[in-house]
Write a structure and sequence with these properties.
Length: 71
């Protein structure tokens, strides 16, 4: 892995913490959107690429975390 080869364990830990913070923020915002618009019909497009896979993971994590189920 390029990150493992290029950076020390301390730097890798900081990088992962930053990424996790951004992912957690995205999930929290998606949870709010699901709760605010729980009666809306939600469609998530998924192409299988890196970006849509990341988006799908955020939406699924938010769906699990939200206390309402979108239609």
């Amino acid at each position: 892995d390029l990150i493992e080869e290029k950076y020390s364990a301390e730097v890798r830990g900081r990088i992962l913490a930053i990424v996790e913070d951004h992912v957690s923020l995205a999930v929290d915002r998606a949870v709010e959107a699901l709760q605010d618009r729980h009666t809306a019909h939600w469609i998530v497009a998924f192409s299988g690429g890196k970006d849509s896979t990341a988006a799908l993971k955020v939406v699924l994590a938010a769906h699990r975390k939200a206390k309402v189920a979108p239609k």
